[in-house]
Amino acid sequence: MKIYLLAPLLLVLAQTRAQKAYKAADAFAKTITAADLKTHLTIIAGAEMEGRETATPGQKKAAVYIENYFKTLGLQPGNGSSYQQYYPVYRDSFLAAEVSINGQALALNTDFTPALASPIGSLGFGEVVYVNFEDSAWKNGKVDVQGKLVLFRFQGLSGAGANAGFGNTVGVRINGLMAKGAAAALVVQDIFPLTKPFERLTNMRTNKLLNRQSMAYFNISPAWAKGILGNDWEAATEGKLPSKVYKAEVQTTYNKQRLVLESSNVLALLPGTDKADEYLVITGHYDHIGRQGDVINFGADDDGSGTVSVLELAEAFAKAKAAGKGPRRSIVFMTVSGEEKGLWGSEYYANHPVYPLEKTTANLNIDMVGRLDSLHIKRGVSKYVYVVGDDKLSSDLTPISVFANKKTKLELDPKYNDPKDRERIYFRSDHYNFAKNGVPIIFYFNGVHPDYHRPTDTVDKIEFEVMSQRAQLVFYTAWDMVNRDAMLKRDIPLPASAMGR
């Protein structure tokens, strides 16, 4: 009986402690205002930043703005003597390509384009294997393509670029040919002549060298394919031509260069008092998807909203420290890049942490907190936020969120904690690189809206009042985490691979 009576008493004491702690925080939480958020976001999501694509001038302008603001707050550099943690980014740039069939040179952009993934080099063949992927000979493994040049048709592409509409269909075909030892391929495309030159840069990557090279392949026009197949061309267009070998002299060359670029995370440190060697990391990604030609994807919500929330949180805690109410634990304010490319910046930090992961009490990640989604608009609810991941790594997380929300009174929606979530939101932002290393996380999110990843994700559509309330919720949550006696318990131990990082 005494045990049962003790539990409610402990809960009351915890609530009393939290209420007292939050009362001290109120004055600083109020410095997180809609007006200040709008001031920052108008710059971060402005045209000058050009959509903040990773490893571009626009992203670097945003990094300078963030760093300078951290400096004005008096925060320490978060990476030794630097506010930035740099990491390399690579991409390939097309230099030259040639294709000739039976002694006749094809014209680039008019008759052919190279696949940018092709390896550098020159090849020559005296015959071509036409492959019909639907005929029985191919399906039964009776078509020999080992070391040979393959010709196949691909329909359905449209648009100006040679890469338009690619994706799994051509990729699966090429991978299948590589598995059977083919040396190169000619892919017949109904896109020539191109209305504008093909894109000469590959996608960015963080690996200097690819783990697996593609084989060489080139897109060619139907007219040149007809020159190889002759009278069989019509049957090929109808899908009735069986796989067979044709005599033809084909020579190809391809050359490209590797470009070494750079991106960065921007970090600032607010040292703690008696528990300064323990850390809370607050993140938001400041990159977006850039521009397509003259059209800018501004990324006001994604994730300009999270970025400027981090700035406002940094200001609130800096003011608390200046008033003699600084946090017991140190706080790392970090805006990361490369999220849109595949969580690159946070992955780099997790693999090269400036502060030990085993000493990191939690990561609070803010990604899209400035808008309303259709589900809540239909319900007439604006004061809400999706709280993701608070049920997964530490049993301390949910109670802290609930206590903190007594101040902001938002609806805390757990929808994306559902293991059956089809959108897999838990795995799609920077907190995941902390979570997979055992660090407790909470991810704050407003849900997807029609302007997601579109040029129309602009500042004028941001709900700044509710955005400020969401940022205040993060502030109160962080206040509890950095001032409590013990680090958050870890229900799942830190993986051995993360120890010592």
Q: Nearest-angstrom radius of gyration?
A: 28 Å
Total number of distinct structural domains: 2
Number of helices: 14
CATH level-two architecture of the largest domain: 3-Layer(aba) Sandwich
Integer average pLDDT: 93
Structural class computed from helices and strand pairing? alpha/beta
Distance between the termini: 45 Å
Instruction: Compute the number of strand runs.
Output: 17
What percent of residues are in strands?
15-25%
Overall 3D shape: elongated
Structure commentary:
It is a single chain. With 501 residues, this protein is α/β, with parallel strands linked by helices. The protein has two domains: 21-90 and 260-498, Aminopeptidase (3-Layer(aba) Sandwich), CATH 3.40.630.10; 92-259, Glucose Oxidase, domain 1 (3-Layer(bba) Sandwich). Helices cover 32% and strands 24% of the residues. It contains 14 helices and 17 strands. It has helices at residues 2-29, 34-44, 57-72, 136-139, 168-179, 222-229, 233-237, 300-322, 339-342, 344-351, 374-379, 397-408, 431-435, 464-483; strands at 76-77, 84-101, 104-105, 112-114, 121-130, 149-153, 184-188, 216-220, 244-270, 275-285, 291-292, 295-296, 329-336, 360-366, 384-388, 411-413, 441-445. The strands form two sheets. The chain has a 15-stranded mixed beta sheet that branches. Strands 11-12 form a two-stranded antiparallel ribbon. Helix 2 (34-44) crosses helix 14. The longest helix is centred in the N-terminal third of the chain and has 28 residues, at 2-29. The chain is elongated, with a radius of gyration of 28 Å. The two termini are 45 Å apart. The relative contact order is 0.16. The model is unreliable at 1-7 and 157-168 (pLDDT under 50).
